[in-house]
Amino acid sequence: MAEKEHFEFQKEVKRLEYTKQYMDEILEASQRDLKAVQDKIKESMANLEYIDSSDSYINILTNSRFFELALNQKESLEAVKKKPYFARIHFQRTGEAEELLYIGKTSLFHNETFEPIIVDWRSPVANVYYDGRLGEITYPVRDEVYSGHLYSKRQYKIENGNLLSFQDVDLTTNDELLQDALSGKADVRLTEIVATIQKEQNEIIRAHLRQPILVQGAAGSGKTTIALHRISYFLYTMGEHFNPEQLMILAPNKLFIEYIGDVLPELGVEHICQTTYEEYVQHATGIKLKLQNPNEQLEAIVEDGLDTLPSFNIPQIKGTLFYREILERYLTIHEQHLASLFDEDVAIEKYKIIRGSHLKKLFLIAFSYMPIEKRLERIKKIIQAEVKRKSKSVIDTLNKRYEDMIGKALSGLRDPDKRREMVTKFIDERDERLPKIKAEAKSTASTYMRRFEKIKIKPFYRKFLTDRTILSEIAPEWSIDEQEKFLKYHKKEQWAVEDLAALYFLHAKIKGIPDQWKMRVVFIDEVQDYSLFQLAALKAGLETDMFTMVGDLAQGIHSYRSITEWDSVLDLFPRANYFTLQKSYRTTIEIMEVANKILSKMDEDLPLVEPVVRHGNIPTFVQSEEFNNEVIQEIYEKLLQSGHQSIALICKTSKEATQYSKQLNAFGIEATVLKEDSVLGKTQLLIVPSYLAKGLEFDAVIIVAFETPYFDTPIDRKLLYVGLTRAMHDLYLVGPNKETFLLGK
Ligand SMILES: Nc1ncnc2c1ncn2[C@@H]1O[C@H](COP(=O)(O)OP(=O)(O)OP(=O)(O)O)[C@@H](O)[C@H]1O
């Protein structure tokens, strides 16, 4: 990197000073009356043609986030001041003057000259920086394509508001900023990477925002990070038209939400919904469930290492689209039953108001796109309106008829007593009958609709799980033996993750998802752990396919009940763009070599992972017949001495994790078992059961395997692979022999 002696160094220092000074002015103004300044800017920019598009007004408004920051969050502003930008492009848009654009995490425009002091990394023109090439380039702005010439790209190292160095980069230069970022110590949480986003990652972040995307990415290729940056890019680009509360990110567990918790505010993202599938379904349906812990299910399978899954594997079946089909048949039975209740016409007295057959058609055909109970609500409204309209004409007709009869009595009957008697009779009858009709009309719709009882989803689904007659009718594809197995499996009421899709689906089809939970855009991390039906149910309930899904089949440790290939996901999302990421940014070449050995044993036939060029220590195998405190202590101390801060000891099961942490603590090593609700802290040694390690990363990892070695089975290979790929810099394997880690002699 260019240090102080570079001929432009002073120029760059001055530029940084100028930027900071202007920021100070803004900050001061914000103390006074920033709102007024902001309004003025909006006003004066209203007619301005600017860099990115003729839509410049909107663009600048969204670009002027700095002002909003100043207004709302002094703290973030101070943070931006410490590092206002990280790169500069020397760029000329076709037909315009050359410009030096400084790229940072937020934008800043001079409020009098409108000069862009900092350009937001998410703005269209910043794409030029990430795209890689120098020379003639094009970049998309909304639906148009702009062209221009990129003369140079410069990266800056700025710390605490001071310029340390800079470097001009092109394709042939070694990306020092990236190297620097990767060799740094692991934060206990994920961090933003705006300065070093790579070309293939940038393509995913900026991939068409109105289309779904699916990413198969190697361990450590940046999937989680990219998904979070795409959220930031999405909200920035959509601007004020999109309410962030309608964007949901689904993470595998609460620990993971905590792990990513710091990145989003750093990227300017707030108020989005971050949750797990389990929590979301329970909120959206209002159904409370005590769920079996999926990790316990997994442990039960891996403990004996045999992968003994029954051929009629119910958790797996519940994730298939065939299961959805069975439930659809069940819904059809329910729907037909309700439709049959429309056989009676709606009437007041003997006057027909609406024909039942007409309502039935509305229910089964015209409104079939709506959830069942919503259709009934709509039909009730139609009945109400019709009754209101027609009851009036019934009353008018009757009124007229009584008047005629009274008139006839008055003129036709000569006997005054008889006449009085008849007239009084008609009047009495009218006065009694008409108010009754009026009253009846008020409740006709409710009375008619009373036959449609509202159902509760949980017992409705439970009936399907346990009713022999229903099952044989809707699942004839299953043999009698399989049907019996299914019924027996559900004899005792207990709920598991794989039932969530069914409950959500039924709720969506019968009651509909309430607006508050009807997310418009969904981001799913670790999507390989979902079943096809889980995704299909979500898509049906939300009535959108706007999903960004990232995952890695090689880490599909729940594959006994989840996705094992992407084709069926792509069939479910036919508009989706599919991407792959092959490079790992997390792990050193040496660690990846070991992990690749395990990857190559897998059935998925995934290409080997390419580590970015970063060397480290060769992973060390330490022979030990049993778990030995001294051995662990020695490794642990060595790792601490090399300056590592986050160190994890990964074992296969949670039982072992508890046992080892007790042993280590008694021995004097502070060790904590990582749990789903843990708060990630730095200092102590973390003992991590393998399935919980997914998604996380550590400076150094010690994998131990004694009582429960890793067997050469699909799930074990994946668990081991997950463990190996958590290490950024150093890896130790401790066990009786290398075969315990499937690594041969
Ligand atoms: N372009 C980049 N610049 C700097 N660091 C990067 C870049 N891309 C990824 N990283 C770093 O690589 C590590 C792995 O990223 P991340 O956890 O997002 O990967 P992942 O694909 O989700 O991994 P896994 O599937 O193993 O959970 C993180 O420390 C991240 O900061």
Overview of this structure, please?
It comes from Ureibacillus xyleni. GO terms for molecular function: 3'-5' DNA helicase activity; ATP binding; DNA binding; hydrolase activity. Pfam families: UvrD-helicase (PF00580), UvrD_C_2 (PF13538). Keywords: ATP-binding, Helicase, Hydrolase, Nucleotide-binding. With 745 residues, the chain is an alpha/beta fold. Among the domains are: 1-81; 343-450, no CATH class; 598-741, P-loop containing nucleotide triphosphate hydrolases (Rossmann fold). 46% of the residues lie in helices and 16% in strands. It has 27 helices and 23 strands. Residues 47-59 have low confidence and may be disordered. Residues 178, 181-182, 191, 193, 196-198, 201, 217, 219-225, 552, 555, 585-586, 695, 697, 725 line the site of adenosine-5'-triphosphate.
Tally of separate helices: 27
CATH class of the domain at 598-741: Alpha Beta
Strand content: 15-25%
Through-space gap between termini: 44 Å
CATH architecture label name of the domain at 598-741: 3-Layer(aba) Sandwich
Indicate the overall shape.
Answer: globular
Q: Tell me, rounded to a whole number, the average pLDDT.
A: 88
Ligand types: adenosine-5'-triphosphate
What does the main sheet amount to? 7 strands, mixed
How much helix is in the residues? 40-55%
Number of strands: 23
Report Rg.
34 Å
Do you know the CATH topology of the domain at 598-741?
Answer: Rossmann fold
- Low-confidence segments: 47-59
Structural class: alpha/beta
Superfamily (CATH H level) name of the domain at 598-741: P-loop containing nucleotide triphosphate hydrolases
Domain UvrD-like helicase ATP-binding: 196-588
Binding site for ATP: 217-224
GO molecular function: 3'-5' DNA helicase activity; ATP binding; DNA binding; hydrolase activity
Organism: Ureibacillus xyleni
